[in-house]
Amino acid sequence: MSFTRFTLRQIEALLAVAELHSFSMAANRLGLSTQAVSQLVAELETHLQFRLFDRNTRRVTLSSAGRDYLPSAQTLMRHVQETEIVANNVRQRATGVLRIAAPQVLACTALPLAIKVFQEKKPRVVVRICDVAVDQLVDQVAFGDVDLALGPDRAAGEAVHSKAIFDSAWVLWCAAQHPLAKRRRVNWAMLREHALVAAGYDHEHSVAQMRKSLPPEARIMPLEVVMNISTALGIAAQGKVATLAPAYVAILAKKFDLVMRRVVEPETVRKVCLYSPTNRTLSPAAEGFAEHLISWLPRWSKQ
Length: 303
Hints:
The chain is an alpha/beta fold. The protein has helices at residues 8-20, 23-30, 34-48, 64-91, 104-108, 110-121, 137-142, 188-191, 200-208, 229-236, 250-255, 284-302, and strands at 53-55, 60-62, 95-102, 124-131, 148-152, 160-175, 185-187, 196-199, 224-226, 242-246, 258-264, 269-277. It is rod-shaped. The model has no long low-confidence stretch (mean pLDDT 86).
């Protein structure tokens, strides 16, 4: 007996006739002719090699073998219906698991809130955050370790697509008692006169590179370099040094009671990008979350 020759339509016909005790009523439910339903049942009986129904002029009833077989057919149809529900949820981006990489600040501020808002409409989508170093973001997407990545603008290469989501100015964060806190704005020349703590190699890449065209005596060099922005903010909170970071770290900086001062002449802006693979297809859930981030993050950054 070849199970590959079973059809769901045959099982549907069996279940409808068994419930309604009538080929004609089953035909109406299934949108088929009575002859078509009778043929489906006959084909299934041929494959099974036993009769499913006892027929008479007034009523159709399950045979003894049909009664034994019916529970299995009902179980099969329940699984099929569950499969259809899952497929519909996938199509509607209502279910799935995805992974997104982001550096520490975005991983602990923007993404948890973005996920909360997204899951209010798509509660069955699971979004897992991978906090990684900035320089690892593109590779995480290219190698398939994550579905998406969110972070500062980096060269993406052919395997990764980069889309700018929002801009965030590089600003000075300092304690209220710091001398620069008395100014509404500061310029780069003023910064040379004050000690700065830098947050990791990302600072060296993003800030030091901004000023590399200046002569050595005009360049800004940090007094100390730490790995995490939270450490830099904590040191700055003691009042003796300040730190440079994008404006979007405000959620963390305010917890340290730091104040923000714009750095001008020139003002330098960091682009935050969403990275996605070009060499593989995103799941519907990942596509839906990417679209959510593209529309939601610019509003978050303005707040």
